[in-house]
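re: ur question from yesterday

yeah so i grabbed the chain u mentioned. its 208 aa long if i counted rite. heres the sequnce exactly as i have it in my notes:
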Amino acid sequence: MPKPLPVNEPQPEAAPSRRVGRPRAEGTKVRILAAANAILEEEGIAGFTVEAVAARAGAGRATIYRWWPTRGALAMAGFLAETAPKITYPAAGTARATITKQLKRVAEVYSGKAGRVLAALIAEGQRDPGTITAFVDGYARPRRDEGRAILQAGIDRGELCADLDLEVALDALYGPIYYRLLVPLNPLDAAAAERIADQVFEGMLAPR
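ran it thru and got these structure tokens back, copy pasting raw so excuse formatting
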């Protein structure tokens, strides 16, 4: 009588390997940026150190320097992680309404502690180019690209003059905000931002 063939019992499937490197790294970054912003708000840039951020975030200095090469770059990154999401462009219909609403958000945020921190960081950037580079690359350039696209859409829809110089228009809209932030001769608030937007847009509207 032939011997029965052996029956292979089904083996449990191997659990898929979990790649924890990236989520863990992202979690560390979030903690570092939150710690950086908290120390900035509490101590200002004068009391801001990489060692203090590392201690609060539970991270090593080598880890921090791998992502942010200078103290100023770390400080600016922490500030932007907290502040940039608060001053995004809303979906408000026309180019004028969208930019006016965002300008008012910027003025409201910069009129408080965030504005004082940013003014100090801009001053720090005069001696540490990495601080300004972090601001330009992490916020100013991408946000300006968004603003340019919003104005261009307004031109395409016939809201704004066809020959509008987009770069000059953006300077005219946002320059006064930063001037009032750094040279506090006049208040920086939502009402001022709305007046600035009204004045500038009156010169940009397409003829009717």
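noticed a couple things. The two ends are 101 Å apart (CA to CA). also The chain has nine helices and no strands.
anyway ttyl
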